[in-house]
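Students often ask why inverse folding is considered easier than folding. One informal answer: many sequences map to the same fold, so there is more than one right answer. In these notes we will look at a single instance of the problem. The structure comes first.
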């Protein structure tokens, strides 16, 4: 109870990712996981996009890793905003 998976998707990043690796798109949308604690607060967790896309980066010229790095920064900003009081 109280747990949620939140999918995050942006068409511009999806298009760029798809051009680099069709198999990597199985990971879309990337996700945040909100877990309710016994005290009624919540924790936010996620795998960084660079970790999610790591298995697919060997098949391209490094562009997928650059995309994942950009997404890491975006995810960090989302998490920061989501967890501010």
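Output (designed amino acids):
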């Amino acid at each position: 109870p109280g747990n949620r998976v939140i999918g995050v998707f942006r068409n511009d990043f999806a298009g760029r990712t798809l051009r680099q690796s069709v198999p990597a798109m199985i990971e879309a949308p990337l996700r945040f996981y909100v877990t309710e604690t016994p005290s009624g607060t919540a924790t936010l967790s996620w795998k960084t996009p660079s970790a999610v896309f790591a298995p697919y980066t060997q098949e391209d010229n490094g562009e997928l890793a650059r995309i994942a790095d950009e997404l890491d920064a975006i995810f960090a900003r989302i998490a920061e905003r989501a967890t501010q009081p």
